[in-house]
Amino acid sequence: MPIELGHFALILAGTIALAQSAVGFFFWRIGGRITSYLRQAAVLQFLLVLASFAALIQAFVLSDFSLKLAADYSYTLQPLLYKITAVWGNHEGSLLLWIVIMTGFGAAVAISGKNLPSDLLALVLAVQGALGAAFIAFSLFTSNPFARLFPSPLEGQDLNPILQDIGLAIHPPLLYLGYVGLSICFSFAVAALISGRIDAAWARWVRPWALGSWAFLTLGIAMGSYWAYYELGWGGWWFWDPVENASLMPWLAATALLHSAIVMEKRNALKVWTIFLAILAFSLSLLGMFLVRSGILTSVHSFASDPTRGMVILSMLMVVIGGAYGLFAWRAKSLRAGGLFAPISREGMLVVNNLFLATAVIAVLVGTLYPLVLEATNGVLISVGAPFFDLTFGVLMAPLLIIIPFGPFMAWKRGDFVAVTQRMAGAAGFTVLITIVLVMVSGGKISLASLGLLLGTWVGIGAIAEIVDRIKLGKVKFSQSWAHLKGVPRIAWTTMLAHFGVGIFVIGVVSVTAWEMEKVEEVAIGQTVEIAGYEVKMLDVSRRLEDNFVAEKVMFEVTSPWGWVTQTASEKRVYTASQIPTTEAGMLTYGFSQIYITLGDLSEDGVRVVRVWYKPFIILIWLGTLFMAGAGFLSLSDRRLRIGVPKSARAVAEPAE
Amino acid sequence: MKWLLVILALFAMIPATLAIEPGEVLDDPVLEARARAISSELRCLVCQNQSVDESDSSFAKDIRLLVREQLVMGQGDRQIIDFMVERYGEFILLRPFFAPHTYVLWFFTPFILIVGIVAVFFRWKRRKSQLPGTDDVETALTRAEQKTLDSLLKDDGKKE
Q1: Are the C-beta atoms of residues B38 and B80 closer than 8 Å to each other?
Q2: Of B20, B50, B72, nearest to B80 (Cα)?
Q3: Which of A124, A300, A432, A477 is the most exposed place for a label (fewest CB within 10 A)?
Q4: Which residues on adjacent β-strands are paired with residue A543?
Q5: Residue B105 is part of which domain span?
Q6: Helix crossing, A346-378 with B103-130: angle to 10°?
Q7: Among A573, A591, A583, A438, which Cα is nearest to A503's?
Q8: CA-CA distance, A568 to A587, in Å (whole number)?
Q9: Are residues A534 and A498 in the same domain?
Q10: Going along A164-211, which residue ranges are E strands?
Q11: Does residue A421 fall inside a structural domain?
Q12: Same structural domain, A510 and A521
């Protein structure tokens, strides 16, 4: 019964979304009461979708295998957490999660949008309604999560063991918050194009949504990367897998959007471009969805899929992209140019930032889609992998990293390049010094890696230098600097944090790529593998029986170069229901570096192949992304970004025409 | 002197037989480095987006050994790559050949970058010539909007 109620709630939500969209598009000019109706509809729609999602979760928790989805993807002996996460460990359920988040964002706009002009809000909600209706219809007609089985089986078929991990509880919801958050920016862009209200205030309204979804997307991608790192047992953190690329593209676009929205907000410039990016970012989210769910590529992330779904998403993609960019082409000309600026200025720097980020999107897009296009047109099969992306993407990132620290130092409108360079001289000297020390410590020679290290350090130090320069540290009395420090606006702090995060991320990537060590050896109990001064000793082998898997567990004792002794375990598991084997890596963290141990095959009696990696500074990769996402959230709490401009704005809230 | 040769030969053989075992490593570090470079350019065809160098599938292992075998035979990098392509198709390359059918793949991104740079440059030029003397332009905001904006910006000024 709850399942039917859930099903019904979803149908009802779809109907409301449809009404919300129709009413919104036809009557947005009226605003006022129409807008209040739309706001209620958005909230109601969210509550209904939430109820249907709850029904699905209940069926999974109770192992109600008359629900086909539960029978296909869960198992009575799974721990409770994995029973819940199994809800979105498949196509149908994850689509519903997507819809929950999408309608949730719609409701959030409806609730928080009191201070928006009511006609603009009406349009935003109309677009959200249309998206909601499309996705709910997609769910109901092609991928109904509420389909039943009769007679119902006694036992379910278990979730893919790789997915039976805390990562599934974290990675998809965060990622979806990012992807779907971008739909709000999209709706705002379309609303702006229809209403013609495209100005600095618009940028201010959109920026919190862009910031929030960007921060979630950053976290989602980073957590996915860490999950792949520890779960797949390959020791890598990024594979240039088409699906990873599918998440990287919206991220790059959202990063560009964040920066161009600053220019639009502060200087009323780059308006057309900002709107373009807002549409692009969400289009790329949809493209990612298409790549994952259509089955045109094989990857770790692929869902069992059928061509109909692919066609439906493709048509949705075409309507969204075609419609939005059609509107864009039609209306963009009517936009009047905004503030003028010299090439050497903060705006100029942000333009360069956008240029490189947008080109990076193209690089990833071409690399991901070209093989598909070539196969479809010529029948030639090629594959594009890490070496291609490292080259094209890397070449684009280098100049971007060089200019990052310049941005915050530049004045708006017209910067003084010489003066800025002088102010940054200290940072530059410091950077070179630190790089030399880092390279020497790593025992490296001058190579591409030291250049990369130089770039990372430059971005990190440059970020801090901006604050140091701002408070005139060392130029005035310390107490005065301290006083200045308290007056530093939050946006300067968040810029510093985010850019600092980029810096240490780069340092982590470069170190791991250049100085990672790997040993594959046959080891018996009591023998050791030596790597980078660490001694890894195999202690013993045991069997472990769990409810849902059987594991062979090998204990290792690791002695660090400075004599610390710690233990870790690596496992090979076989999952009972599916008989799928997985490996669990043993990992030990030393500062920012890690020792990573996986098990290979048992070759002779007691002799086992063991793979040991030394991964220098690998933690910096994720720490860097945490800094970036943290900066995003911190920036959200900036009171200037909150839409709630008190009282005086109320008068403006009426449509001003 | 013969015994010396025998011992030398034995010594030379040990690493060769060991290479088949998990180490797989060639004793010549230069050859080994080349082997690793080549195998990280090859896709493990039975895996999900792993290179032959990274994967521990039996396919990847076979290819790794094959690469090393050919290197020991004195083949050049390019010859080995060609051999692999002949055997498994171009799909095995993680970095596709630079050839007419991949020109678009390789040139599209730099092309877009150049177009972007040119577009930004000309736009700036045009804007500059259109508005001689003016340093700033305001769009037509309604008075009410202007008021909000002013209050928002005033808010900024206080904080900075």
Answers
A1: yes
A2: B72
A3: A477
A4: A552
A5: 101-159
A6: 150
A7: A438
A8: 7
A9: no
A10: none
A11: yes
A12: no
Q: Which of A272, A340, A485, A521 to mutate to test the interface with B (most CBs of B within 10 A)?
A: A340
pLDDT digits (tens, 9 = 90+) for A129-165: 999 999 999 999 988 999 998 888 888 888 888 788 8
A541-571 per-position pLDDT tens digit: 888 888 788 898 999 999 999 888 999 999 9
Instruction: Enumerate residues 129 to 188 of chain A having a beta carbon within 8 A of any beta carbon in chain B.
Output: none
Residues B82 and B114 occupy one common structural domain: no
- Give yes or no for residue A182 having a pLDDT over 90: yes
The answer as to whether A375 is a domain residue is no
Note down the domain range covering A563: 517-615
AA letter at A453: L
Tokens of A45: 């729609």
pLDDT digits (tens, 9 = 90+) for B67-105: 988 888 888 889 999 999 999 988 899 888 888 888 999
Asked if the Cβ–Cβ distance from B96 to A383 is below 8 Å, we say yes
Long-range contacts of A147-152 (CB under 8 A, 24+ apart): A147/A67, A147/A68, A147/A69, A148/A3, A148/A66, A148/A67, A148/A68, A149/A65, A149/A66, A149/A67, A149/A68, A149/A71, A150/A66, A152/A64, A152/A65, A152/A66, A152/A71
Q: Work out the minimum CA distance from B48 to partner chain A, whole angstroms.
A: 6
Q: Classify residue B23: in a domain, yes or no.
A: yes
Q: Spell out which residues of chain A touch residue B102, defining contact as CB-CB under 8 Å.
A: 370, 374, 382
Last residue of a domain, one of B78, B97, B116: B97
Q: What is the largest CA-CA distance in chain B?
A: 103
Q: pLDDT, tens digit, for every residue of A359-372?
A: 999 999 999 999 88
Which of B49, B138, B147, B149 to probe by mutation at the A interface, max A CB count within 10 Å? B49
Share of chain A above pLDDT 70, in %: 93
* SS3 of residue A126 by DSSP: helix
How many domains are there within chain A?
Answer: 3
Q: Do A520 and B24 touch (CB under 8 A)?
A: yes
β-strands A565-575, A581-584: how paired?
antiparallel
Q: What's the complex ipTM?
A: 0.84
CB B84 within 8 A of CB B92: yes
Provide φ and ψ at A559, rounded to 5°: -105, 120
| Whether residues B33 and B82 fall in one domain | yes
**DSSP class of A476:** B
Statement to judge: residues B126 and B85 lie in one domain: no
Q: Where are the alpha helices (DSSP H) in chain B?
A: 2-18, 29-39, 58-72, 77-88, 103-130, 143-159
Instruction: Decide if B134 and A362 are in contact by the 8 Å CB cutoff.
Output: no
Answer yes or no: is pLDDT of A124 > 90.
yes
CB B43 within 8 Å of CB B52: yes
Q: Is the pTM of this model over 0.80?
A: yes
Q: Mutation test of the interface with chain A: which of B148, B153, B160, choosing the one with the most A Cβ atoms within 10 A?
A: B148
Statement to judge: residues A132 and A63 lie in one domain: yes
With a CB-CB cutoff of 8 Å, which residues 413-432 of chain A face chain B?
413
Q: Cα torsion for A235, A238, A242, A246, to the nearest 10°?
A: 140
Quote the minimal CA–CA distance from B2 to chain A in Å.
34
3-state secondary structure of B96: coil
Look at residue A553 and give its three-state secondary structure: strand
Cβ proximity of A133 and A103 under 8 Å: no
Token pair 């471009």 is found at A273
- Chain A contact set for B117 (CB, 8 A): 355
